[in-house]
Design a protein that fits this description.
49 strands, six-stranded mixed beta sheet, 1417 residues
Length: 1417
């Protein structure tokens, strides 16, 4: 046996002595003493910086300090030797997999000396139930002797996780007989015992000294080790061999030395064999460990699955389920699968939120917890002072202890995973939940326990998180430096080594370390994890290793817990909602922020470290701020500070009591040394001065943390805490400055709760300091909507404002918002000079009481200049809600004004609001369009939105015309004219009347005018003489109307519109001259409308005229005459005499007309209108018809009578219409009398002398006759029988005279031989045609009168009197074809007789002969 105590071997294989722990997983009842953390002494808190205690107040220096920006913040709090810290908890006591050995040959000492060189075990692969494979690169183990008190004979589910994973049996025997007779029986008994226990076992045969000669020379010799393998290797190789005391290689520790002295090209044979033996031993050791681990995991998971299936049944115990599931977590922890272990606790925590599970805890605490109990000693992470697992198993643990234990286990795993950020996040949620429990069950906790416990717990967790983070950063940096050194050594050795075995040895030694790729993959930009926390990787299902980030690297700091969920076996203990809660609990990504500027100067840190440091600083800052608040609450309870109730209303009433009376009433004597168990509280609460010093020190540390984490919102919250403390200490000036810096922040965010606390305290400070102007500003802010809910409090601050506004020495200006909202509108935008302008002002008051203002003003400024136009309203009351007012001003300056501001004044207090951006809702394009339409016209009245333009005064006089439209042609009509002065006057003026369209304005010497007053309705008439056809005006006052009539007449043949222009030029009393005009359009129509038509009846022409009355009143039809038509037929001689008389009369006149010398073309045959009564009355819209029979003179008579007949005949070319006048006129005389009601009117009576009753009206009549080109004569018999042949003859005559042409003979011949085609149109119901119904032909000569004859046969198919077929010429208009009367206009078709008479036979024979002759033709 070795003289070294064989009790145990520690994590890396070296011997150590570990104190006995009853329960390694939960920390048994044994006491563990550990050294405290090194920091400054506790007394330094109360004594250090005492000379500069005043400097700690942020009032004398800004919150941020540049000296602390580039260094991580460390707290200077010191714990007593009795208080726990990170080193005296069981966080650093890492539980490992244990292996038990039985040594009856006393050979353990040899293995113990060599084994540390081969530990920890490397590349242990764990395969989870989900199919994922996790590889632990380095796994320390703990080896215990079989008779160690921690190795028990039997293990149940309570302590299965502590069961050794492998049992070793150490054998040394060189004699085969001894083995056969003694040793083999012992081994067999031991193997049987292990098999019954279902325990993994391994037989280690140890050889001492070099191999014997027989072992080296004979392969047939069976050694003892061969016999052992043959006896016990049944299903798996469970035997291995180690050799010690070999002269060739005494120890592996000399391997490197021997290898360095060896100049051969390879390693020695004995060294290689020794390494192979150790490798075989380690491989089999790992196989046994993995097999046992799978067995343990299966056992726990089966039990968990069974219990989970019964979770909904009555009597199910959450604590029993917790106990079993934690056993699974402890197995994962020993296997260094910390994420899997942490996952179990997270699932248990989610299940704990179920009210049914939480209600299973019978008691909240074991006893009423005091602030000086062990719980307040800062030992939150220490689970060794209570056997928590035993209490859980026996269902005796309290709710408080259970929550503490669960949090401590989670925190330990998070620190082992080197995730301080997640640990800090978990700490905040844990403290919050525990605070709610303490608040919910106040009877279980003594006064000041909550504050003391939160303070001590927060401080310890802060230190633990900071230490863990520093350990991660320092470890990563150290490993990075080591890696760089190894790389440099490798490069140097590669340069110096030759091609021998020494180079291979260097490569082998380097390959045993962590590769660079895994270092950077595990730690991001920093390096690998520490030795006692190996990193892991995941093996995919295809067998390839996939690098994964290390659990302990820097990448894990910002992983946000997402990697914890991937690849875990777990149980089916969570529903969907709980799984979502679990995912949310693990997600901490939102705490990570952009790196702050203060860390950019530290070039030794990478970007990830900066982000993680910011996140951790922020979380630690929140924890520290919560601690400071609890410290403040303790100070309030003791009496160092007054009570501060943020929820209290009517602060103005209770503030004096809070500031001056609460301390005396509530101050109690407390011995801090005995009242608290946490040393910083004992020291800091001994006096008010020591409390203030510690409190400001904490706030200073919080400030640094928030600045380093770039959390400005949190800095504002911290500012409020500092300001509030100074407020309680009656440092009003300091408090005012701090409150003022954050007063607007919370109003913008609509945090009324904090805003109320800030502004009420700020107003009190300002009032105490006499800062009345600022005090009014704060009072206005307090009256903002939604901030104050009490009416008395609103009335108080409003009365304060009104009272201060009456102080004459002050001049206070405040914005209208948030108390008032104003809107200024106006309908008109353009006003005249000196005109009164009114605008509408809408004021919405947020106050609950009316307020009277002395004056209100709306200011408009002149564009580009400093002139203003101010609209005012004096002494008005603004009621709560919406108010409408009208402000007025006089446009005394001609310019364009834009809205500037509005002011409401009460005493010396003015509320103002800018109106310059009030019309931004109107589109800018609208303003551009108005400017574009204005152009360069200086007198344009176009304005932009929000503008008022004052322009020159304008004449208000208007002109108006009226008439009984439509007016009639050829008679005197009257147009009425009105002139309205409105608000204007005429000192002198003149009216001018013209007609641009040519209507005749009948001149008169005077005009009678009726002048009336628009307001009184009084009227008078007077006569004004015209001067040069102009009407003079003078001295016409306001609101006067002048009315008179203007006579005019128009002549035209068709209806038309005439324009009457009335122009006024006048001068006002202000000597301003104006000119205005009115153009009135009046419709004139003919009194009668005549519709004429010419009807040809058997070569007799009838002229039919329909006359309609269009006058608005009745007229009398007196007479009519037809001009341009001879009253009777005149012979050529009579016509010639008549033309001579006309020539003589025209020669004597100055005007001659060629048309008057031409004879008429028509003469009147008969007037068929004798039935008309004389002086016939026609009413509006009534019709009468006049019919005349006329006839046209023959061409020969016209040619004889016309002086220019020769010339006309030569130019006529066959057109008979040009031989004389073809136009006629119907002249009508009628009487139109003025209506009696019009005669009675004085204005019309003055014009009666111009009125004419007898009127004449002429209507032109044009007679147009068509020109015949061809004549078609048809011949058919008068009767026939159905089915008989009827001859049908066609004769076409040429009436068209060819024009003479100078063209060649070919063109002339072509013209003479123009092809024509006739088409016979028959009704198929009556006729069948025999022959050609279409035939082309041409006339061979140009003489008029040539005739062509054609014939065909018709067969009637029905009896009666059918229509005779019609013949058309294709391409010739029917109006140019003459159809004279046929020989037989009708034909009668008789049915075919059955018996023919003699006459019928004769007719048939005649028809037959006619048909024969026709065919011959």
């Amino acid at each position: 046996m070795s003289n070294v105590s064989p009790n145990s071997m520690n994590l890396n294989g070296s011997t150590s002595s570990t104190s006995s722990v009853n329960d390694s997983g939960g920390g048994g009842g044994g006491n563990v003493t550990s050294p405290t953390l090194s920091s400054s002494s506790a007394s330094s808190i109360s004594n250090s910086n005492s000379s500069s205690s005043n400097n700690l107040k942020p009032s004398t220096q800004p919150l941020s300090s540049s000296s602390t920006l580039n260094t991580p913040t460390q707290l200077s709090l010191q714990h007593s030797s009795s208080s726990s810290s990170l080193n005296n908890t069981n966080i650093d006591i890492i539980e490992h997999i244990t292996i038990s050995y039985q040594d009856e040959s006393s050979i353990w000492k040899y293995i113990e000396a060599e084994l540390p060189n081969h530990l920890p075990l490397k590349n242990i692969s764990w395969k989870t139930k989900t199919g994922h494979t996790k590889v632990v690169e380095k796994m320390p183990i703990e080896i215990l002797q079989y008779n160690d008190e921690r190795v028990k004979a039997h293990y149940d589910n309570q302590n299965l996780y502590k069961k050794p994973y492998l049992y070793l049996y150490l054998v040394h025997c060189d004699d085969p007989d001894t083995y056969k007779n003694v040793v083999r029986g012992k081994i067999k008994q031991w193997v049987t015992q292990m098999t019954e226990r279902q325990q993994e076992w391994l037989i280690v045969y140890v050889s001492l000294g070099p191999k014997r000669f027989s072992e080296l020379t004979s392969k047939l010799t069976r050694t003892v080790f061969d016999r052992i393998k043959n006896d016990f290797n049944v299903k798996r190789d469970r035997c291995c061999q180690l050799r010690f005391l070999d002269t060739n290689n005494s120890s592996s520790g000399n391997k490197d030395k021997d290898s360095d002295n060896n100049n051969t090209t390879g390693l020695s044979t004995s060294t290689k064999q020794q390494d192979d033996l150790w490798d075989d031993f380690l491989i089999k050791m790992k196989e046994g460990i993995i097999s046992s681990a799978e067995q343990y995991l299966t056992t726990y998971e089966d039990e968990i699955r069974k219990m989970d299936a019964k979770r909904t049944t009555p009597g199910w115990s959450y604590q029993n389920f917790f106990f079993i599931k934690e056993g699974l977590a402890l197995i994962y922890e020993r296997a260094q699968l910390y994420e899997d272990a942490l996952m179990q606790y997270f699932e248990l925590e989610v299940l704990f939120t179920d009210p049914n599970n939480r209600s299973q805890f019978d008691q909240i605490t074991d006893e009423v917890l005091q602030p000086n109990s062990i719980h307040c000693n800062g030992n939150i992470l220490d689970t060794s002072f209570k056997n928590y697992r035993k209490l859980i198993h026996e269902n005796k643990i309290s709710l408080f202890d259970f929550k503490v234990y669960l949090f401590a286990r989670q925190s330990k795993l998070l620190f082992l995973l080197q995730k301080p950020i997640e640990a800090a996040t978990k700490s905040i949620s844990f403290i919050t939940s525990m605070s709610m429990i303490i608040k919910q069950y106040p009877n279980s906790f003594a006064p000041m326990f909550k504050e003391s416990w939160i303070f001590s717990t927060s401080m310890e967790l802060i230190k633990a998180c900071q230490d863990s983070f520093d350990k991660v950063v320092n470890g990563a940096q150290q490993q990075q430096q080591q890696q760089q050194q190894l790389q440099q050594q490798l490069q140097q050795q590669q340069q110096q080594q030759t091609i021998n075995g020494s180079a291979q040895k260097v490569v082998k030694s380097i390959s045993s370390t962590t590769p660079i790729s895994k270092l950077f993959g595990a730690f991001g930009p920093f390096g690998s994890s520490s030795n006692n926390t190996p990193s892991t990787s995941t093996t995919s299902t295809n067998g390839k290793n996939t690098p994964m980030p290390s659990n302990s690297g820097m990448a894990s700091l910002s992983a946000g817990g997402s990697t914890i969920i991937a690849g875990l076996s777990g149980s089916q203990s969570l529903n969907n909602l709980q799984s979502a809660q679990l995912s949310g609990a693990l997600n901490t990504q939102h705490y990570i922020r952009t790196p702050s500027l203060n860390l950019t100067s530290d070039l030794s840190e990478r970007l990830t470290e900066k982000q993680d440091r910011e996140s951790l600083d922020f979380l630690i800052g929140d924890l520290l701020f919560s601690s400071a608040q609890r410290l403040e609450e303790l100070a309030i309870m003791i009496g160092y500070l007054p009570v501060d109730d943020y929820n209290s209303e009517m602060f103005f009433q209770i503030v004096d009591e809070v500031m001056f009376k609460s301390i005396e009433n509530k101050k109690i004597e407390v011995d801090s040394m005995t009242a608290f168990s946490y040393q910083p509280l004992q020291v800091s609460l001994q006096s008010s001065k020591q409390f203030t010093q510690l409190y400001f020190e904490l706030l200073g540390q919080i400030e640094k943390l928030y600045i380093q984490s770039n959390r400005m919102r949190s800095i504002s919250r911290l500012t409020f805490a500092i300001a509030n403390l100074n407020f309680k200490l009656k440092e009003f000036q300091i408090a005012e400055n701090l409150f003022k810096s954050i007063s607007n922040l919370y109003s913008r965010e609509h945090w009324s709760y904090i805003e109320y606390a800030v502004k009420t305290r700020l107003s009190y400070c300002q009032k105490q300091l006499g800062h009345l102007v600022d005090y009014v500003t704060t009072c206005v802010g307090l009256l903002a909507p939604g901030l104050l809910t009490n009416k008395f409090e609103k009335d108080h601050y409003l009365s304060e404002i009104i009272k201060i506004s009456q102080i004459p020495e002050l001049n206070i200006v405040q914005p209208m918002i948030p108390l008032f909202k104003c809107k200024v509108t106006f309908k008109e935008t353009v006003y005249r000079y000196l005109e009164t302008i009114k605008i509408n002002v809408r004021i919405k008051s947020s106050l609950i009481s009316p307020i009277r203002f002395n004056n209100g003003a709306v200011s408009f400024i002149k564009s580009g200049f400093g002139d203003k136009m101010v609209f005012q309203l004096n002494d008005f009351v603004v009621e709560p809600g919406v108010n409408h007012f009208q402000f007025t001003a006089v446009g005394s300056t001609k310019a364009t004004f834009v809205k500037d501001s509005i002011w409401l004044k009460i005493g010396n207090l003015s509320f103002g609001y800018s109106l310059r951006n009030a019309d931004t809702s109107l589109s800018h394009q609208q303003g551009n369009d108005k400017l574009a339409s204005a152009g360069n016209n200086a007198s344009s009245t176009t304005t932009l939105p929000g503008e008022i333009k004052v322009i020159d005064s304008e004449s208000q006089i208007t002109l108006e015309s009226f008439a009984n439209s439509p007016l009639l042609f050829c008679s005197i009509q009257y147009v009425g004219i009105k002139l309205h002065t409105h608000s204007d006057t005429i000192e002198a003026g003149v009216l001018t009347f013209t007609s641009p369209s040519g209507a005749t304005i009948i001149p008169t010497s005077s005009v009678m005018i009726i002048q009336s007053n628009d307001k009184t309705g009084e009227s008078s008439s007077r006569t004004i003489n015209l001067i040069n056809d102009k009407l003079p005006l003078s001295q016409i006052g306001y609101n006067q109307t002048l009315e008179f009539y203007l006579p005019l007449m128009a002549v035209n043949t068709e209806a038309c519109t005439h324009q009457i222009r009335i122009e006024l030029q006048h001068q006002k009393q202000t000597k301003e001259k104006f000119s205005s005009s009115l153009v009135s359009s009046i419709l004139f129509i003919n009194p009668l409308t005549i519709d004429e038509s010419v009807i040809n009846v058997n070569n007799r022409l009838f002229l039919k005229t329909i006359i309609q009355c269009n006058t608005p009143n009745m007229i009398q039809f007196n007479s009519y005459s037809l001009e341009g038509c001879d009253l009777e037929y005149q012979s050529p001689e009579q016509q010639q005499q008549h033309q001579q008389q006309l020539s003589l009369s025209s020669s004597n006149s100055s005007i001659s007309s060629k048309s008057s010398q031409q004879p008429n073309l028509y003469y009147l045959v008969k007037d068929h209108n004798h039935s008309l009564a004389p002086n016939l009355n026609l009413y509006p819209g009534q019709l009468i018809s006049l019919i005349f029979e006329i006839k046209k003179y023959e061409s020969e008579s016209l040619s004889l009578s016309s002086p220019s007949s020769a010339t006309d005949s030569s130019n006529s070319n066959g057109n008979n219409n040009n031989h004389g006048k073809n136009d006629m006129k119907l002249k009508i005389k009628y009487t139109s009398k003025m209506l009696q009601q019009d005669i009675d009117r004085p204005l019309i009576r003055e014009c009666k002398s111009l009125w004419r009753d007898q009127n004449e009206f002429s209507w032109p009549i044009k007679i147009e006759q068509p020109t015949y080109l061809y004549q078609i004569d048809l011949s058919i018999q008068s009767k026939a029988y159905v089915g008989t042949f009827v001859p049908f003859e066609i004769e076409i005559t040429n009436l068209k005279q060819q024009k003479e042409s100078n063209d060649n003979s070919d063109e002339k011949q072509q013209q003479q031989q123009q092809q024509l085609q006739y088409h016979i149109v028959v009704d198929p119901q009556f006729w069948m045609i025999s022959g050609k119904n279409k035939h082309s032909f041409s006339f061979n000569s140009d003489s008029v009168g040539e005739k062509l004859k054609f014939s065909c046969g018709l067969i009637p198919i029905s009896s009666g009197s059918p229509p005779i077929p019609k013949v058309n010429l294709v391409g010739i208009n029917n109006s140019n074809i003459s159809y004279p009367k046929t020989k037989n206009e009708k034909i009668f078709i008789y049915p075919s007789p059955q018996i023919y008479s003699c006459h019928q036979l004769q007719d048939n024979s005649n028809n037959s002969n006619g048909q024969t002759n026709t065919n011959k033709t």
